What we know:
It is built from twelve helices and no strands. By secondary structure, the chain is mostly helical. The chain has a single domain, classed as Phosphatidic acid phosphatase type 2/haloperoxidase (Vanadium-containing Chloroperoxidase, domain 1, Up-down Bundle). The longest helix is centred in the middle third of the chain and has 25 residues, at about 120-140. The protein starts with 5 loop residues before the first helix and ends with a helix.
Amino acid sequence: MPxxxxxxxxxxxxxxxxxxxxxxxxxxxxxxxxxxxxxPHGYLDKAHAPDxxxxxxxxxxxGSLREQDDVAQYRAxxxxxxxxxxxxxxxxxxIETPSAPRIFDEALGVAxxxxxxxTLTRLLGRMLGDLETIQTPAKxxxxxxxxxVTEPAETCVPPEPWLAASGSYPSxxxxxxxxxxxxxxxxxxxxxxxxxxxxLAYGESRAICGVHYASDVEAGRIVGAxxxxxxxxxxxxxxxxxxxxxxxxxxxxxx
Length: 255
């Protein structure tokens, strides 16, 4: 056993108490954002991020067979009002993080709790910022009117002025839901079928809700896949992905 001189002995005792104190101190709960003002920014450099207006085909031409099919589906899904699927579409209107990823609770087999998964929560939140970067040029460039604007009918959410003024093509909800599904299915491959099915349904809810056409939803999934591919090549995302994957695994392993 080493001999400690008086001064060194006191220092050692002080360090021991400090270590004990640090070990017993409660870990502070993570603090998340509350809105767009303090929302985390995305991972991608805007100058080099994919541009949806450059790789998406234009929306269906007025009067085309595809546009006629879009309108027919819009009219047919109005009959779903009052059904559980209509209620699900209304619930799927939520896209705000940090809470929105709870839509995957059943698919994952575990409750999405931001406090238990802070890195995963922030990762999914930052993806929303990246989506805006990728899809905004297309939204503003194509400026496709939403279904309820062209042909007023019942929607599952109030058709507020800002919603009516924003472009219908592509669907941002569909893009983010699909991108989230791709991320989560890679983190939990044993639940991939359920996760991917939920990501698809989340996008379909937009057409059922009456705020997007079916072709908007399909285009959104292309954007979501492009977002996922770009993030897979980003070093910061890769680092967070591994930490988030471990967080999710621990949450799934804990009753």
